[in-house]
Each structure stands twice: as structure tokens, then as C-alpha cells.
Amino acid sequence: MLKLNFLGRGSAFNIKEGNTSAYIKNGKDFILLDCGEDIFERIINNNLLNDVSNVYAIITHLNSDHVGSLSSLIYYCYYIKKITPNIYFPGAELQQLLNLMGHYKEFNLTLPEVAINFNINNICFKFIQVTHIEKMNCYGIIIKDEDSLIYYSGDSNNISKDILNKLNEIDYIYQDTCLADYRGNPHLALRKLSELIAKEWRSKVYCMHIDNDELITQAREQGFNVVEIN
Ligand SMILES: [Zn+2]
To answer: What is the 87 CA–ligand 1 centroid distance (Å)?
Structure first.
């Protein structure tokens, strides 16, 4: 069963918990979901690239807490590891950002279409559009292999009907969840998550991108899980 490992589980200002980012280590493949400001440092401090030959970074959106150290990861792979990392994002804006940061050759960028599967060896991924910040393209990711089905929300203030209708098939949902609850919230308030997910399914849901310690307590009280840092 595929399960995500987490490098950080905090919201953008939650310095203690670090930027939310997950990875899958699959043989010589290192597959990273998002690469926020402190993630490159955590990857190196945990020696996660030591026995790796292929690096893949899948980016959900371009807020700094999701992409802030991608440039350092790219340079490190290219100049120190002598490998060219593979980056996945469904829009041209990541190419523009990396070009502005001085990258023209050190990475391979794939621009998969939204809602169409792409594969990294035996694992299948699919970007789906999510609502987060107006006028910004933000994506969740569906991850599938022969015996697992996972949904990773990226940052979003909702869960689509398509995902909610598949709760019986899905093994795990990793969902951006916050205690803060106000009109226009770009993240999913715990109150709203509780409305969306019936009690019987809550053990499949792992809250991430947490904004404070009280969220952890209240999410668990309501039957949800909270991701742990590896
Ligand atoms: Zn974020």
C-alpha cells in the first residue's frame, strides 16, 4: 500500500511545523510533492537523496510555501548529484518562474494536462484543478498504483464532488485543513471538512497544512487523522 511520507505539515506561517510537503521513495526514485521554502534543507538534512538516481518534483501551485526552495533542489541535483530533476506542473507559469530564477537547462519540465493521467514508473498521477486563491492555478493530485488510491489536496478550500463520491474507493485523503474559519478562506476550515466528510469515512482523512496546535487536537477529537513528520 502506497503511503506518503511527510517532510513538513504546516501552513505558510507555521514555522514550527515546516512547509507542507510529502514524498514517495520508490527504489532509486524520489518523488516529491511540493518544495516550499524549508523543504530543500529538510531533504538534505534527512539524507533523502543519497541513494537516489531519479528525482521527480510534482508542484501543486506557485505559492512560496510550495515552491520556494525548488530552485535550490534543481541546482543541487544538477551540479552535486549530476542528475537532471524532472518537474511536473500543468501550466507554463512554472517555466517562466524557473527561467526568471536563472534556470534554462538544469531541469526537465513536463506540462501534463489537467485530469489526464501521467506515470512515473509504476505510479500513476493526475492533476485536478482545485479552488484556493482567485486567479491562481492550483491543483490537487490523485495518486494511484496497483493497490492504492490516494488524493492529495494541495492547498484548497474545498473537496470536489468527484473525490467525495469516491470515498469508498479512496484509501487516503491528505487534505489542507485549518482551524481559521472566515469568509473567503483559501484553506479548508475544519468545520467545513466535518460537514463534507461523514464520521464513517474520517479515518481515511489526514489533515495537513495545519495552522496551529489546537487544530491537531480538534481534528483528532472529530475522528480525523493528522499527518506525522517522518
Ligand atoms: Zn500553502
So the answer is: 19
| Tens digits of residue pLDDT in 75-88 | 999 999 999 999 99
Measure the CA–CA gap between 42 and 110, rounded to whole angstroms: 25
Cα(155) to centroid(ligand 1), Å: 6
Question: Does the CA dihedral 94-142-23-39 come out positive or negative?
Answer: positive
Question: Where does residue 2 rank: exposed (0-12), middle (13-18), buried (19+ CB within 10 A)?
Answer: middle
Ion ligand 1: residues, CB within 5 A, are: 65, 155
Supply the DSSP string of 168-214, one letter for each residue.
Answer: TT-SEEEEEEES---TT-SSEEHHHHHHHS-GGGGGGEEEESB--HH
Is this model's pTM higher than 0.85 or not?
yes
| pLDDT at residue 3 tops 90 | no
Residue with cell 511540493: 34
